[in-house]
Amino acid sequence: MTPEILVPYQQIPVQPIQMDELMNQTLIRFDAQPTTGIQPLTVQFADQTQVCAQNRSWDFGDGMSSNARYPEHIYPFPGTYPANLDMTFCDPDESSD
């Protein structure tokens, strides 16, 4: 039997955080599809943040990263990977691309 790969929807903070960090985490939203499957698992990530943002930084939880808004990532090995998205918020009058 081939092991499954689990890619969590979003990582949930478990340590106390500063208010500005909490605001950023509630503003940053993303989706990943599919979140489980047989390796190699190709996952499509989508930044769904509704505010002006730039300098996106995806961490796929396996040592790989991307700066694209809608990256695709392949998980070649079984495991659980805590995917995360970080970004810088910009002036609303600027472009969000």
Using brief descriptors, characterize the structure shown.
single chain; 97 residues; mainly beta; three-stranded mixed β-sheet; three-stranded antiparallel β-sheet; 1 helix; elongated
Structure description:
With 97 residues, the protein is mainly beta. The chain is 9% helix and 39% strand. The protein is built from one helix and nine strands. It has one helix spanning 19-27, and strands at residues 4-6, 30-33, 36-38, 41-47, 53-59, 65-66, 72-75, 79-80, 84-89. The strands form three sheets. The protein has a three-stranded mixed β-sheet, with no helix packed on it. A three-stranded antiparallel β-sheet has the order 2-4-7, with no helix packed on it. The chain is elongated. The protein starts with a strand and ends in an 8-residue tail after the last strand. The model is unreliable at 11-19 (pLDDT under 50).
Number of β-strand runs? 9
Order of helices and strands: EHEEEEEEEE
Tell me the fraction of residues in β-strands, as a range: 35-45%
> Termini, distance in Å?
42 Å
Largest sheet geometry: 3 strands, mixed
| Assembly category | single chain
Query: Whole-number average pLDDT?
Result: 75
Structural class by SSE content? mainly beta
Shape: elongated
C-alpha Rg (nearest Å): 14 Å
Determine the fraction of residues in helical runs and give it as a percent range. Answer: under 10%
Low-confidence stretches: 11-19
DSSP helical segment count: 1
Strand order of the largest sheet: 3-1-8
Concise overview:
9% of the residues lie in helices and 39% in strands.
